[in-house]
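Figure caption, in words: inputs first, then the predicted bound structure.
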Amino acid sequence: MVDLVMEIQRLKQERNAVILAHNYQLDEVQKVADHIGDSFYLSKVAANSKQDVIVFCGVRFMAETAKILSPSKTVLLPEKDAGCPLAEMITAEGLRSLKSKYPDVPVVCYVNSSAEVKAESDICCTSANAVKIVASLPGRKVIFVPDENLGDYIAKQVPDKELILWKGHCVTHAKVKPGDVNQVRELYPTAKILIHPECHPAVVDLADFVGSTSEIMRYAKESSESIFVIGTEMGVVYTLKETLPTKQFFLLHPGLVCPNMKKTRIESVYQALQKNQYEIHIEAEYAARARLTLQRMLEVV
Ligand code: CIZ
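Bound structure ((~{Z})-2-methylbut-2-enedioic acid present):
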């Protein structure tokens, strides 16, 4: 039987490739990755990497972001159907129609969006820098797409802004209800409950800490507490258990499993390197504008 880990290492050398894995990837994929992190961190790694080939273990918008920022590199998404329902909740046409109702209002798009939607926006953001990006814009009104839960969270952090929100949401984070938080508080009264801002506002209101995946991980590392309940995708619990073995981590809700993130298996990574699949191409028509939207974000944070 082929030792996939060894074969992946061999192909990586042969093809001068780097493997990037999002925090939400399966344990077996994180184990063969050269870098693990959120989409923003991984895109910066991709842009600065010396390798010719980037295998992006995540979902489509993440691999697209890496390609937009590194146009001369070959970017591979190991599972071609690994999409993001949230990113698919808005189209460029829908955004153009919203913009026509609010001329001159700047548009911030969450990184969970297609290249076409990015091209139609003024500046991009991730959950780690969304508050800073919105606060940096001139004027009172801001159009924020496509995650209305994250938008609601930002609006509360930047009260001098009026956010015009698109009605999109992450179907995985939306599974958590306030009752789930109350239940775990009873079960683990000393635990700190760390929640992603893609959860519903009524859930976010009950958190001890709200943050992106990288912020949740930093909080758990720096905290003097030892028990944590994690309100984001279960891949983060895997990384936390690996990196902080003396602390205890529990998943807030059993449904916090993104089926698209879990499509990528170690076999998919092997096939990606062996067959050069599935290569990301961005239409020239909107690649340059999408790059500007991402570069503006990089200038602020
Ligand atoms: O930006 C990312 O990678 C996502 C989708 C979530 C997060 O909080 O890291």
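The domain at 2-82+261-281 is CATH 3.40.50.10800 (Rossmann fold).
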